[in-house]
Amino acid sequence: MRGLKMLLSASAVATTATPALAQDIMFKPIIEARLRYETVDQDGPLPLTSSRDADAVTMRMRAGGELSSGPFSFLAEAEGTLAIDESYNSGVNGKALYPIVPDPETVEVNRVQLQYKTKPLIVTVGRQRINLDDQRFVGSVAWRQNEQTFDAVRAEYMGVKNLKVDLTYAISARTIWGIDGGKFGAANRPTHIDGDNIFANISYKSKLGTLTGFAYLVDQDEPVAALLRNSSQTYGFRFAGAAPLAKKVKLSYLASYARQSDYAKNPVDYKADFVTAELGLEVASFKLTGGYELLGSDGDATGIAGGFAFQTPFATLHKFNGWADKFLTTPGTGIQNYYGGIAYTVPKLGKMGPLVASFIYHRFSSDRLSIHYGDEYNAQVTLKIDKHLSALVKYADYDRKGIASFAGDADTRKFWAQIDYAL
């Protein structure tokens, strides 16, 4: 009888322990979908026999999940893009008579990572998404259907109050060009860019804002236009913050400076500066923004006729220098971007919201030789439909001034309509 009681007691312990163990392992599904229409109307430099506009209807799906137990987690996510209407040059599909819409058909492992996470320390190993600061130097290029991820080891330390140390060593960038990267002569659009890259950020948060010092050492194996010119070392700082001026009135500010030079295998000897300054004023539902950005040029760069300029190959470039994407590669004479914008937010629209409407104007000129490249007008409306759905319409109009000053310098108009779903 005593033995039977002991057996029943052991059975009860096992029964209560099993649910506790099951509760300790959590699963979070990842399901995201995006349907987008993009059209591009671009004047030369297309072939003279072609007057085609690009029309792209693409669907992007991401699916996966994250298993977590205590401080440890494992995440795996697949990504695929389908071209429903492929009347466009994806950059790797060989349809050179159309303007480029860089959303190629692809299927890939987007992320697969192991992570250790506690309050003072996060360590992530594997293929991962990395967005640093405002993504001006390192980002995931989330605007494109196939995002950029990195094969990397990343450590984030927050063990000292108001201080964060963020260090990454990346051996490969998985680009937006997908599984067909490099095809049809697109050698400068590879599936992945291998190398030895170090991203280092140290930031301190105060009442006035966050001061960040950074160092980005980019050592790429793959050449660009027969030269390893994207291998570079960049050192700089960034300060960003906001301060209330009155009820429903807030001032925001941003200032950043960096110095870039050749590094590792880059045969081009150059030095160039980066400067940005921005002010924003929020008054109730309105926000006004004005700023200036410089990506400088070295006219004495060795081996490069016309000079060589500051480059940010791992940035989320669509966020900066206009949505028409005319300056994804900085021209040899550099860029000066003067810009101003206004945005209006409607917090609620029935059961939907917020709705945000914005307009931005850019004036682009060179750092050297006093070239006025052109002007650009950007407009966008976004609407949060419910907790899973959001919608967007967007327009960009780049108006070239004078003769073409760099590859792709042409009058360009783009329009997007998009629906996003996230679980």
The fold-level CATH name is Porin
Strand content: over 45%
Whole-angstrom Rg: 24 Å
Which class do the helix and strand fractions yield?
Answer: mainly beta
How many domains is the backbone divided into?
A: 1
Cα end-to-end separation: 54 Å
| Known CATH architecture | Beta Barrel
The CATH superfamily bears the name: Porin
Stretches where pLDDT falls below 50 for ≥5 residues? 1-21, 46-50
CATH class label: Mainly Beta
**Assembly state here?**
single chain
What is the helix fraction of residues, given as a range? under 10%
Mean pLDDT: 92
The count of helical stretches stands at 1
Succession of helices and strands: HEEEEEEEEEEEEEEEEEEEE
Largest sheet: 18 strands, antiparallel, barrel
> Based on DSSP secondary structure assignment, what is the total number of beta strands?
20
Quick one: overall form? globular
Keywords: Lipoprotein, Signal
Pfam families: Alginate_exp (PF13372)
Domain Alginate export: 50-167
Signal peptide: 1-22
